[in-house]
Amino acid sequence: MSKFNQLINQGWKQESEIPFLEQIATKASSCYTYANKKYSSVAIMPVPSDSIVLIRLSSIRGNQFNYFQFTWNENEDAIVNAVDSAKDDADINNYFSFYFSLQSAGEVSIVAWEQWESNYR
């Protein structure tokens, strides 16, 4: 069982398909989501074809969101542990705090819109 699959034992839900419409999420091989008491949702999506792991922090309604990206290089345990540890404190209204909490797992970046949407203006 991969470390990502083990998230299910930590209260995460494995989605049957990628539930997000953003183009950046289309290459993800799987998706695990977690909704917390701060009305925020965290999703973790491995993208093996690009050697990255995407993290999506959003409002429960889904109308506000940010993406974060890890380079995936033998650091699956660190990524999963960092995201899982931050899940209950994750708050879409304070996404920089979430971003800083992810840095313990390695190189993480905030993904800008123009990096994934071809019609960004």
Structure, described:
There is one protein chain. This protein is an alpha+beta fold and 121 residues long. It has one domain. It has two helices and six strands, in the order E-E-E-E-E-H-H-E. The chain has a six-stranded antiparallel beta sheet with strand order 1-2-3-4-5-6, with helices on one face. The longest helix is centred in the C-terminal third of the chain and has 11 residues. The chain starts with 12 loop residues before the first strand and ends in a 10-residue tail after the last strand. The model has no long low-confidence stretch (mean pLDDT 90).
Tell me what portion of residues adopts beta-strand conformation. Answer: 25-35%
What would you call the structural class?
alpha+beta
User: Can you list the strand order of the major beta sheet?
Assistant: 1-2-3-4-5-6
Q: What is the total number of structural domains?
A: 1
Low-confidence stretches: none
**What's the total number of strands?**
6
Question: How does the overall form come out from the CA principal axes?
Answer: globular
Residue share in helices?
10-25%
**Overall average pLDDT:** 90
Output the radius of gyration. Answer: 13 Å
**Ends apart, CA distance between termini:** 42 Å
The H/E string reads: EEEEEHHE
Query: How many H/I helices?
Result: 2
Main sheet makeup: 6 strands, antiparallel
